[in-house]
Amino acid sequence: MLNKLNFAKSVFLACLVAAPMIASALPSDANQPIRLLADRATYSERTGVTTYSGSVTIEQGTLKIAADNLTVNLNTNNRSINSAVATGRPATMQQIITQEKGLAKGQANRIDYDAVSGIVTLTGNAKLTQAGSSFSGNVIRYSLKDGDVEANGGGGKRVELIFPPNTDTNQRGLR
Q1: Domain residue limits, the chain
Q2: How far apart are CA 116 and CA 111, in angstroms?
Q3: pTM score, whole prediction
């Protein structure tokens, strides 16, 4: 069982995980408390690895992450986040990006977050939806900084993109 100091460090590190993910989301999210729930939490001072397991959930404002397991890799020199990996069947994440763009939802067997590049990679039965549009494939890369999306099929499957119909009343189908 973790002692109180290690548990406090683990919760603090969870806060560090959530903070960079909200950089391009609603500004109010950063001012909200972070709530992390897990059946187990471990932290290694030597390696800088924090692991949460058993129905892991993180919430901060509109950001919500749910996974079976979450591992955070820290830089051992300055304790900044290098990367985070969430796994599950599926692991999910959602967040309101802006009021105009609305809610973005992602799910996959594995969600990798690279803190340096700001890239989220969804792998294995991956799906990303926002504003009525969706991307599905084996691997989806999403830039939190730029909003760019890249999807790959793999395993004999193709990428599927679905876009909502144009709601402009001046447009009446194809001409």
Answers
A1: 28-162
A2: 16
A3: 0.75
- Helix H segments across the chain? 4-21
**Alpha-carbon distance values, 134 to 32, 61, 93, 165 (Å):** 28, 23, 14, 13
Whether the CA torsion 97, 101, 103, 108 is positive or negative: it is negative
Read off φ and ψ for residue 76, nearest 5 degrees.
Answer: -70, -20
The topology under which CATH files domain 28-162 is: lipopolysaccharide transport protein A fold (2.60.450)
The alpha carbon torsion through 120, 126, 128, 132 (nearest 10 deg) reads 170
Q: Give 99-131 pLDDT, tens digit per residue.
A: 777 888 999 999 998 878 888 899 999 999 988
Residue recorded with tokens 């690279």: 114
- Residue of 43, 32, 16, 174 whose CA lies nearest to 95: 32
